[in-house]
Amino acid sequence: MSDIYDSLPLTSIAATVLDVLGVNPPEGFAPANDIVTEKAEAAFGGKADRVFIYNPDAVALWLFQKYTGLFKKALLRSDLQIPMLSVMPSVTPVCFASMYTGVMPESHGIKAYVKPVLKAHTVFDSLARAGKRCAIVSTSGDSISEIFRERDMDYFIYDTHQECNKKALELIAEDRHSLIVLYNGNYDATMHKFAPESNEALAALEENVETFSQMHDAICSTWKGHKTLMGFCPDHGCHEIDGGMGSHGLEMIEDMNIIHMFSFIK
Ligand SMILES: [Zn+2]
Fold this sequence. Notes:
alpha/beta, Alkaline Phosphatase, subunit A, single chain, 12 helices, binds zinc ion, globular, seven-stranded mixed β-sheet, two-stranded antiparallel sheet
């Protein structure tokens, strides 16, 4: 595999979400991804009023390249597919902190696999200040469930990703949040245990694609009066290690290069 790192940074997601919702990003946030924001302007003729971010854990760019057919349902439902560069160390709390604070680890303060409540300013704080309601739907003990606590927003924390997905569909039906973040860690957990390309892990990945598709279709049929940016936004990639297991956290293209997808639904 050639040693080419993706160029567009994970930190751009924070300002992208705010820009699309018509909220000015705070100073210090990495610039928005202008491919996504300009596409949103063109698709909506202005700003969006809903964002739904699906955060599947550990979906590497190389998985997308090698198993493109497995992503078919998501490809058919997304308008942009963009290679993105994660941050170091490429572990879950560090990466999601960068995704939702718009800054690098040395600035937000989570620089290792620890899950303190972030003191840094997040997308959720900006949206709360702008009077927009946010929700996080995630599994108990996982990074997204821990590091974004103590904000003026709604938290729906469950034991299993299946319960999270069911709740996310209910929230789409209730239609009361400007931003919904849904986390699924099932691919990550499975690839650590059985290796990234094991049948078990690929089945989990396929389930992630299916879940994104389900959420997409629910938004299309339920949020007809809205303009929605939907994202498929993993945190980091993964690689195989000795013993038939998977890992991540290193500065290598398998861990750093990821694939994001975006849909513009109206
Ligand atoms: Zn992760």
